[in-house]
Structures are given as structure tokens and as C-alpha cells.
Amino acid sequence: MAPADDRRSGSTPSSADDRTTEIDGGRNTDSTEPTCPHCEAPMFERHCKYVCPQHGVIIDCSDPFL
Fold first, then answer.
1. Which residues pair with 35 in a beta bridge?
2. Domain ranges, ordered by start, for the chain
3. What is the DSSP letter of 27?
4. Who is most buried in 28, 43, 45, 58, counting CB within 10 A?
């Protein structure tokens, strides 16, 4: 019988991260992008808007403070 670690070798933390990026717009987020002022989650850019996965559109690209 194979050790438990060998049976779970297909399950990696990165596979969970891949699902997250599909949900949040298919884009990897990093620490250089803005964070949500409400929950501090990394936001992603979609159609000239910064979107928080939890709160929706937070910043529009036409906002003067960007």
C-alpha cells in the first residue's frame, strides 16, 4: 500500500489557488495591485475598474487618485 503522501500527490496548494484566480476574473493577483479599503483583499482589474471579490467594483479607472 502506498504511503498517504503518495496518494495525495495530485492535490497541491497551487491547484486551489488556480480555482481562486478563475473565480476572480482569471487573473493572478499580487501585492503590487490595490487592496480593498473594506476588507484588504487584493483587487483585480476588469474593464477599467478595480474589483474586490467580496465587495464588487471599488475603484473606477477615471478616479483621480489612481
1. 42
2. 31-66
3. -
4. 43
Q: Is the dihedral of CA 26, 28, 33, 34 positive or negative?
A: positive
User: pTM of this prediction?
Assistant: 0.43
Burial (CB < 10 A; 0-12, 13-18, 19+), residue 45, is: middle
Q: How far apart are CA 56 and CA 54, in angstroms?
A: 6
Cα–Cα dist 10/58, whole Å:
37
pLDDT (tens digit, 9 = 90+) per residue, 4-46? 555 555 544 444 444 444 444 545 545 577 899 999 999 888 8
